[in-house]
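Something for you to look into today, if you have time. Just paste the record in under my message, thanks.
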Amino acid sequence: MHFMFILLQLAGAIMLLLWAVRMVRTGVERAHGALLREALRGATRGRVRAATAGTVLAVMLQSATAVAVLASGFAATGVMTVSGGLAVMLGADVGSALVVQALSFDLSWLVPLLLFAGATLFLKVEARIVKQTGRTLLGIAFILISLRMVGEATAPMRHSALLPMAVDYLRSDPVTAFAAAALFTWLVHSSVASVLLFMSMAAQGVLPAEVALPMILGVNLGAGLVAVGLTRGQAIDARRIPVGNLIFRAAAAVSILVALQLVELPMAWFGESAARQVVNMHLAFNLALLVLCLPFTGPMERLVRLILPDAPAGQESFDLMSRRTSALDRTVIKMPSVALACATREVLRMAEVVEIMLRPVMDLFESGDRARVDQVRKLDDEVNRAHTDIKLYIAEVNRGTMTQDEARRGIELTDLAINLEHAGDIIAKSLLVLAEEKSDKRLSFSREGWSELTALHDRVLANMQIAMNVLVSGDLEAARQLVVEKERMRRLERDSHERHLKRLQSGTPQSIETSDIHLEAVRALKEFNSLLVSVAYPILTQSGDLLESRLARTA
């Protein structure tokens, strides 16, 4: 019973650690997403610059995997080359190891301060950046708390009779230790969490450093597998970066593992304590990987192009909805509550496709990739088809006997489908057309104008997430936040308009050349955002929070 309690405590500590790491990443992404993406866009020239950007981004996001997903998205739109993305990934892995270094020190004295400051900012301030900064501080506090819980859970293991047997087995079988650590890292999707866990176990004397060394190698292999798994459904260009990074990491990890069978590595090189040796080994591996592999990103790009060749023209499809069975189940037409639930699922899937269309828009403005523009535009046909199917399905449901609430819900879902269809048209018939015009005329936005557009686009993307959450959960606070965002978007659009006019008055050539495109793109993004906000209106109207299209005052 005591042993089961220890395992339960350890499992709880591990889950808290995973959740806290994700919480920090979410806070940073929501607070500084536009800045992070813009920094990655600016790292497309020069391998050293790309690696440095990857390091900084991984430190901020506390995840090399998150950087891999960002870099893969840029590669898919032609903004970043595979070799540039590989340089970013090599730097990101070093950044992730630096995060582990920072969290390995005893920072328990910071926990009360982080909890107080984080909770105050998150609960009491509505400004998005401040609120998400609070989330980040809370996440760091929870990481430190979870590490203390891991230490408390593993401390009794030092007196276990089974521990010496397990350690002796892993010492004599480093391949098993390597494979187990790789599998664990793949399962938890976080190399930061894995290394911190092994560090805590080493600090308690549960995990000797010589046993931890092959496990650290396994962690690095597992981290590479995670990125490959997360991008497996994306375009071929997006998948090449994680695959190339995995080849680098696997070759290095397996080579060192084999070398350890022939040569004994002096563990004293990595520090005095076992815990310090664990985190230093992890950092040393990734620094060595960066130095040795950075000059070979070009050859690796050629290799992964052989492994993942370009698909024949027109073969690669972004037709996500056609690959799934429709959620509109006609066998439940005579059961309105069930049928409306099916319609809700289909509207949500429709919104997901619209989001997929919106996400690469700014990259297409920059790259002008005609093939990619055509692929994104084809998705509008799927949005239109879903819109028609949903309207006809709900109309058929309405022919039966429905309660007043069910009839109202049917109207709401129909209106949402209409608005999403309009949102898809804004992308396909306005934003993509503007991107093509910019490419055809070989124009460039001014630095200030480009920054304004990317900030607006990132804000609309964030609001798209809120809108989908509102659609699924019906959460009142999220609905209120969405309506508040409409007013903020209106102010951003007005400010962008005024700054653009000032640039025209000052005679900025790029602003003069792209004036029409800039103003139309800003207008389109604002209109798109307004359509998203319509998701919140039924919830706020029903609760009494929306009076004549305005939020009611709160007490």
Summary: DSSP finds 22 helices and two strands in the chain. The beta strands are 546-547, 550-551.
